[in-house]
Amino acid sequence: MLVHLSDIVSQEGKCLKTEIPLALETIVAVGDTYKVVEQKPLQLMIVNTGDKVLELKGRTDVVVRIPCSRCLEAVDWKFSLEIERKLDMKQSEEDRIKNLDESDYITGMDLDGDRLVCDEILIQWPLKVLCKEDCKGICSKCGQNLNHGECDCEKGSLDPRMAAISDIFSKFKEV
Ligand SMILES: [Zn+2]
Ligand SMILES: [Zn+2]
């Protein structure tokens, strides 16, 4: 949903507090599309600190379904977002793009709440998502989810952590 900014931009010292509903369906991150399963309205506070500069604070919770990095089972990952941005409304849109300010959530005098939240989620995108701390992963031979029980494959190495270490050693050997 859009928040119109021209009122607050024209009034120095003005503070706007608002709550806007989000309508995120998916997040495109690291080349894949992920489903948004839960989202709270974005609580937004915008302050005109003078000289057409806006200070923006927002908070919301968004839950995104991401597969576990080891076993690929779906994990509902909660992003608790605290957003803080500064916006110089003196800059034209072209200026902002030129200065590589990532404020693509502003078009003219409209702030796009969904885009702002999406931006912040990408900044906080986790490097690794695990369904549980000690997820056993999947068997590299038959693909069985080892959290659900052992498979019948012969195991070269039992512990996935050990497997990772032997990977590193075999890389050294190749050199
Ligand atoms: Zn897992
Ligand atoms: Zn197996």
The fraction of residues in strands falls at: 35-45%
Query: What order do the SSEs take from the amino end to the carboxyl end, as H and E?
Result: EHEEEEEEHEEHH
Ligands bound, unique: zinc ion
Termini separation = 54 Å
Overall average residue pLDDT = 88
Salient structural properties:
9 strands, six-stranded antiparallel β-sheet, 21% helix, 4 helices, single chain, alpha+beta, binds zinc ion, elongated, 175 residues, three-stranded antiparallel β-sheet, 2 domains
What does this protein look like?
The protein is of the alpha+beta class and 175 residues long. It contains 4 helices and 9 strands, in the order E-H-E-E-E-E-E-E-H-E-E-H-H. It is elongated, with a radius of gyration of 23 Å. The termini are far apart. Residues 139, 141-142, 144, 151, 153 line the site of one zinc ion.
List the helices and strands and how they pair.
Elements: E1 2-4, H1 6-9, E2 15-20, E3 26-29, E4 32-39, E5 42-50, E6 53-67, E7 74-88, H2 93-98, E8 106-107, E9 110-112, H3 113-123, H4 160-174
Antiparallel strand pairs: 1-9, 2-5, 3-4, 4-6, 5-6, 6-7, 8-9
The protein binds zinc ion (ZN) (2 copies).
One zinc ion (ZN) is lined by residues 139, 141-142, 144, 151, 153.
